Amino acid sequence: MGMGTGTTTRIEIGCDAGPDGRTRVVRLSASGLLRARVLPAGAGGVARVALVQTAASLLSGDRVALAVTAGAGCRLELVEVAGMIAHDVRGGDGAALDVSVTLAEGARVAWLGQPLTLCAGCDLQRTTRAALADDAALLWRDTLVLGRVGETAGRLASSTDIQHNGVELHVEQLDTGDLALLSSCVVAGAGVRALDTLALYGQRADDDQALQLARAGTLLALPAASLTTTAARLDPLQRRWSEILFPTHAHDELPLAV
Predict the structure, then answer these.
(1) What does the pLDDT look like over 247-256, one tens digit per residue?
(2) pTM above 0.70?
């Protein structure tokens, strides 16, 4: 039996491209621990939506579901104002974080997430699913911090499933519950405190050190001892890949919290 019921949070964001080519946010609903706020549009008519936390999360029993739908030809950027923390559940129910992204033909979405910190004693189930239609593209930043200072990471069971035109593009599972395996050379390596990943799905980026997927897509996963190290490598790359996604969009970035 869990120690508490937790809080259920649901966010839905939907956008369409208007006759002038500018993207309009046509659906925005939120309840629970997060709120979504429309920001001024970026260059080239890119719509921008901020995700804002209203209370501490992810606690025992919390359930967070985020669904994003982009219509044909949309340009959307999602901005996370602050990182999330998976807290010690103290023997209670685990937390859940479910993300779903659906992109119609020609849509472009950038979701450059802030770090998710896995505190000692956390128990988080995370699923990430994205379905990209023809000529759609998704730029994704996923940063994991393996425990606060002086801690070892709690458990994250993460599942990622990215589909392009109904065909698997990137399918991956990660479980931090086995610390010996996590710190082995097979997964992250010894001394790793951060796992930082930048992925461009639906398009390719030219980078000699990145993994080119079997279908259109490029991914670079970087384990390191600190966020400072990963940021030095991935932040400039993120800016270049953002220009691939939004060629006329001058991207405004928020600094990573180290």
Answers:
(1) 864 444 433 3
(2) yes
Cβ contact 172:119 at 8 Å = no
Token pair of 168 as six digits: 């698997």
Residues 11, 36: contact at Cβ < 8 Å?
yes
Please give the C-alpha separations between residue 164 and each of 73, 95, 104, 133, in angstroms, as whole numbers: 16, 29, 11, 6
pLDDT digits (tens, 9 = 90+) for 179-222: 777 777 767 767 788 999 999 999 999 888 899 999 999 999 99
Written as six digits, the tokens of 224 are 């390191």
Q: Where are the domains of the chain?
A: 8-245
Q: How far apart are CA 72 and CA 107, in angstroms?
A: 5
Report how far residue 27's alpha carbon sits from residue 43's, in angstroms, rounded to the nearest whole number.
Answer: 21
Q: How many residues does the chain have?
A: 258
The distance of Cα 46 from the centroid of its chain, to the nearest Å, equals 19
